[in-house]
């Protein structure tokens, strides 16, 4: 939907001439690369609670934000650039690196921050003229969990929830997805977008995908593929007297075999089966909104009793209420409150430690001018640390602040 | 040769004013940065043969494609962005990172994929008005082997051959090159490009370069430089009754001293001398083409008998036939068959293991629309694994597929 | 101050519509991303002196240039791209990665070069209409030392000096800075820039900032912040008969607590206090210039007597004379001579080794055409190696050459 002028791309190596000889269909290709992005600068302060703890006991930490802890100050959570473009013939591409990826084991064993690593690299190929049905090839978001699909630049709270994110830490994987979006769904989404609602992005209403399933930017370690199916459906509530309101409901299923990384080095010898379901319901904030997702599943988790990874329940979700404050001349203001709960493994970390999360966060997102978004939040956290060598639940109060700039 | 609009670059720090004071020659500089790139998504499946093997014995693996093996699925082989521009005064620059570079020894000793690392970073300075003679400074391709110089986005088969690539794994190094292109050569190349032929890129017909010689993105480890000289000459065959056909022949010589990385850590104490020659002949496909290169040399290789690196023969090459199917309305189609052979060391790997490669690959490249290229291939491979601790030859049949998108 | 056309950025995800609903202030935002950069290719040759030394004794090495040593040839010192843009509402952003960052502990324990890592990622928010007073959030240069603030692409000599750079190796950190520039200062700087003078960049005349203080792209390791205050003031010397000449004087103060990385792994258990002051005076070269900075402080340094890090003096500075050769039709030529001295710790290296630097460098920067800058230099160096396990001072003569291309 970009209206402005765009960055013209140089033609691929032999573009100038190729067209002439391989026919009009090939010749018409023309690419235009657009550049945009955003950066998030954060500060978290544990104002009371288990900032530190003895060995063997959980400290207050979050798998969603490495700067919640002791000895932390400013932190770049994300620094992204997106290169994207319509390549003609119903083909478009998307390439998004992150400029805030750490590399471990550098000088003195310390990590170095802010290396550049890929997040997305995919191409969309539309199979019909209206571009309702398309195939996506490459690295992209896994269609499991509405919250996972929505860009962090659009999410109102600072972090995703452990429950919904536990299926696909970092949200992405490498594979092929088929997306389909009926015209009536697209129409409602377009209408919401015009009202400045925060949608979940350019994903279809229905999706089926297969992926490596080992986690983004990790080496595939088995021959099996992860399969994911998703559906979501926005509905106008005019019929029940709520004129202009829209409710969106849907869900996903995921089946995977994974070899988690283990503390003794490398990955587990055998595969662990993972079966998960998630459902979502969103009443878009006009001005009052409510959003909830819940996930159920069986997935790997470290069992401290037997000192090994086994399969167990992975269950949790969140409920969030938010309010779009009517325009009063100082930008957009959205206060929110969210409760989240999760009990289950976290496969992104060594040995798939068991999480036991029970957080409440109150916050407000303030967008004084388009390029700047401030978020301030207070969180009451109860969490198991994502380390199977530490037991129990840590508690505490955390003050949180973020400045996001969009370019 | 880009005709379209270009991305205008911001002037360098003090550009606006500098011109005025340092004279017209400096003032005329104007830069325009163009962006383009391509990504390759791959799947390989060993359908029969030595997918695995006991310790000490070769498994079917390729130094050209890390996703040929067991426990593999989707794989991003390359994700590239090129920034390039004409800076005026006969000066132009080229900067190409790859978004699919691995970093080793991360969590649990596992690697993390898809970090961004430099491939090319060079500046060309033309010494004459017609820009036939130019100096290239920086990191760029080493002019040894026609196949090495041709971009992977233009190559018909999926991979380069072990023999030709063994001299310069990853094709690049850091140094200075002088290129010269006679007008009559440029004229033939321009004509071929207009016919959508896949050339070897913006390298001259004659080249002489000096480089660090330790391998791209590796630390220089001796005081000596690698020297390379190249010549290539396209000839019209109209005179012998083959109207419109073009044959290109040429070759390169390389002299180097290198300190290979060794399994016990670091690099070898002493230098190993490397002397290589390569010759090529290409009949451009109009519509039937044939392409062959052969290399001869003496270079380091691990000798399992004496358990040390020594100097031995490095010999091999390939013959490829291809056919440009006349336009039938479904894009460009190029079937090909290639046989390759190599016996010699692979200095890109620890301890310079001995390769013994004997592959036949049948495939087809299909470009339905300009931005998309599908390649499907069947390969019958016989290969020694690039690991001096594994002996013998592995064999097998591999089905291969790649989707490349150009932007 | 870029006048040319710019790269138009795609609007952020929901841009098209957002404006309409959150009021005119938000709606007016418009972003335009500009791209520029530069690359530096270097060669250093120690022509006489302590190129090598026995264990325990200093070799001739520099913390400023890793390619001064034995077994070195070509080296990419910096390869930078800047993305920047005015985002409207007095908001602008700046994102600069470096394409020449090494990653250690890769194959055979060897490093791999030329990965991409962030240098700057900040947003400027002007608090007044004239944009004299602004807040900078994110990763950016620490306002300590005129030389540290000036871009390497603008500096006449090849490297910064150890003394001034020792406070902030790599010059940057993560934090928040307030900048203020009075109109009379801006006016003089604009005038100098029009005369093609090399200024120190878009930093204010007065600054106060707080930062993590652990060093750029390193994990914060304590709860305290580094505080820095700076002032600089350009003055016309017309009043004392030096018509058109400008003298700029100023200085900075820095207070920090840091946990240096130690050889046994990780960082020091306790904090080390760091207090530094620096003063500068620059007579801009019209055509003869002189530039000097001196720093005094107490900072951590390894004491070989007690085999531990302690607090000691960190003192040094430089004097540089330069001359802008009047235009003679072959571009801009600036010969220079610089003497530098430093005694104190280098916190960027393991165990904060003690430096004892006493260098003289004679050189010339030649800009034949705008995009190309050649620098040739001869240096007489006396230096302690930045390794607490090596004692004494190494001496030697070094020939140095650099080609920088600007795009």
What oligomeric state is this? Answer: homotrimer
Q: What is the helical fraction of chain A, as a range of percent?
A: under 10%
Shape of chain A: globular
Number of helices of chain A: 5
CATH superfamily assignment of chain A? Porin
Low-pLDDT segments of chain A: 1-31
**Largest binding interface between chains:** A-C, 67 and 69 residues
N to C succession of SSEs of chain A: EHHEEEEEHHEHEEEEEEEEEEE
Q: Architecture of chain A, according to CATH?
A: Beta Barrel
What topology, given as strand order, has the largest sheet of chain A? 2-3-4-5-6-7-8-9-10-11-12-14-15-16-17-18
At the first level of CATH, the class of chain A is Mainly Beta
Integer tally of domains of chain A: 1
CATH topology of chain A: Porin
Distance between the termini of chain A: 16 Å
Task: Work out the strand percent of chain A.
Answer: over 45%
